Amino acid sequence: xxxxxxxxxxxxxxxxxxxxxxxxxxxxxxxxxxxxxxxxxxxxxxxxxxxxxxxxxxxxxxxxxxxxxxxxxxxxxxxxxxxxxxxxxxxxxxxxxxxxxxxxxxxxxxxxxxxxxxxxxxxxxxxxxxxxxxxxxxxxxxxxxxxxxxxxxxxxxxxxxxxxxxxxxxxxxxxxxxxxxxxxxxxxxxxxxxxxxxxxxxxxxxxxxxxxxxxxxxxxxxxxxxxxxxxxxxxxxxxxxxxxxxxxxxxxxxxxxxxxxxxxxxxxxxxxxxxxxxxxxxxxxxxxxxxxxxxxxxxxxxxxxxxxxxxxxxxxxxxxxxxxxxxxxxxxxxxxxxxxxxxxxxxxxxxxxxxxxxxxxxxxxxxxxxxxxxxxxxxxxxxxxxxxxxxxxxxxxxxxxxxxxxxxxxxxxxxxxxxxxxxxxxxxxxxxxxxxxxxxxxxxxxxxxxxxxxxxxxxxxxxxxxxxxxxxxxxxxxxxxxxxxxxxxxxxxxxxxxxxxx
Length: 502
Description:
The chain is mainly alpha-helical. It has helices spanning 4-20, 33-36, 39-55, 57-71, 84-97, 109-122, 217-237, 296-311, 315-319, 327-366, 398-410, 416-422, 427-448, 452-456, 482-485, 497-501; strands at residues 77-79, 127-130, 136-139, 160-162, 169-175, 189-192, 242-246, 256-260, 266-268, 283-286, 386-388. It is 44% helix and 9% strand.
């Protein structure tokens, strides 16, 4: 025989888990991911992910941290053709265009990149429609859906149409919203042959994207519910809750209510901060609340680590908590976080930034706003040679990082382009700034009557002075040993390797 109260709790839990279950389609029927997931289930999944983005602090924080670290403060595209003059003009042109890329002039290229990155988490995809005027209209995933005019479009089950002979996507059904912000049978729709479609796919035959947050939806929802349950228990424990052990409630008790329990005993109403008169000889026992217990924190930490594993982000990075760990564990966590961020940056560059930049520059050339891009030795246009200057990465041990980079450049394992790129800078611009700085030192030295070499060789207090290279100008008044003037340098047995690596 089941206890009615316990049975009701178990039934409610089963129904709750069933409502949260994202496996809403059958796997028995062969088919690609788009046909296995109908529009209604796709909407349900996206709405759950959107709700977590709005109301779940862990999910909201993870979305913001990923977007901040992947995109950075500004999107800067750099041309890499063989003509520096054309590169400068094209970069200046795309920089001006990127300030407002949509027809309403509300969205910059940086904002569009942030929306594209975030959409991979809670929608799995986003669409950008190019206009004849050279603008980009951002289209949310839910607006691309099955056509209402064509009852059985070829491949149009999930908002796209394909060529039955080749399987190639030939266009998309873009729907407009009705007066209430939703979609209905009479709403307008448009068939668009081409859209930029950055998305997150995990099957070869998959066309539409899938939200990354769907994987952690159940676990994140469970954490939210457990927190709310413990909060309610703590609130109950803060109230004056007592249970009669013996004796009878007399007429002198204050605050009695007329209600009675299922056993026929009267119920006493208690409030915080009140003193109650009880009958002599009665015995009261407090209602104890032992929640949350000692296992609550480890259980929550385990679930958060599982969420971080699904997103490729360490627990410390996910919660912005770096206390309690040693240097090695912190270093490992940051290395994994940076590796995930680099992967996302490569995806954003290939799926959105590079295609959009090439399209817009090509249109500018066609409209005679820019000269044609230079061609390589084979006569092929270098229009597609663009790179994204990614945001810089700070390291927890900058001195060690600088020494490592110096050794990599010296042995040819890296170059200044890669070093500057990791720091969010451009190598050519950095070199030009350094050249202007050296010229400024020469000018100041000449104006003040000081040998410029003394300004070039200024050392930081406590730093070992730089070794003078052959041809360097000796500072005025420098002491020289007479025996060193005519002494021939003894040949180094290691071929100068130690000095080269010093």
